[in-house]
Amino acid sequence: MSARFKRLLMAVSLFLFVTVAHAQVSAGDTPPDYLGKTRHGDDINISAMHGKVVVVAFWASWCTYCQKEFPVLANIQKLVSPEKLQVVAVNQDDRETFIKLVRALTKATPDLIYTYDPGEVGKTYGTTSIPRTMLVDRDGKVAYVHVGYGESTLESLADELNELLAKPATQAAAPSS
């Protein structure tokens, strides 16, 4: 094998590795199931929320836009029962900061699910910046993805959530015998 061919093969392999490592979850995709661990060590999986609209929000304490978005997400969860909608806040701080934050946040917004992500969940979702918020429909498919936060996105976020909440989940096909 020639040296030139080996270099070309390595370049193609590197390109494919980088592309796969940063593949972003987009509208229409089935998102990765795992969303991290709670402060008590419980695993949180999207599949356990089938039938609900799920809002997955990647955030961190140092992110000023996350701090603006977070009260909006908490308010949405207060307005819609956890039987119909679940906000899962995936924190990307270090574990110690996460534990301190969540103790206070859980008291203020007990219906939100808070998980800790040491980087694995963010990688599987292709999260390269925060805030990144995904709306997952009742059937477990990503319906909308929002990167960043701005006051102008609030109306579209509300419209999208209302649309998803109005649609029933489709019935899964019965397993064949």
TrEMBL record:
Q: Has the keyword Mitochondrion been applied to this entry?
A: no
Query: One GO CC term of this entry?
Result: cell envelope
Task: Tell me the GO BP annotations in alphabetical order.
Answer: cytochrome complex assembly
PROSITE patterns noted in UniProt: THIOREDOXIN_1 (PS00194), THIOREDOXIN_2 (PS51352)
Against InterPro entries, the record matches this protein to:
Redoxin (IPR013740), Thioredoxin-like_sf (IPR036249), Thioredoxin_CS (IPR017937), Thioredoxin_domain (IPR013766), Thioredoxin_ResA/DsbE_sf (IPR050553)
Q: Which Pfam families match?
A: Redoxin
Q: Does the keyword Signal apply?
A: yes
Q: Name one GO molecular function term.
A: disulfide oxidoreductase activity
Keywords attached to this Swiss-Prot or TrEMBL record, sorted alphabetically, are: Cytochrome c-type biogenesis, Redox-active center, Signal
Span of domain Thioredoxin: 25-166
- Signal peptide (from-to): 1-23
Q: Where in the cell is it found?
A: Cell envelope
From the Swiss-Prot or TrEMBL record, give the protein name: TlpA family protein disulfide reductase
Q: Which organism is it from?
A: Dyella soli
Q: What is the lineage of its organism?
A: Bacteria, Pseudomonadati, Pseudomonadota, Gammaproteobacteria, Lysobacterales
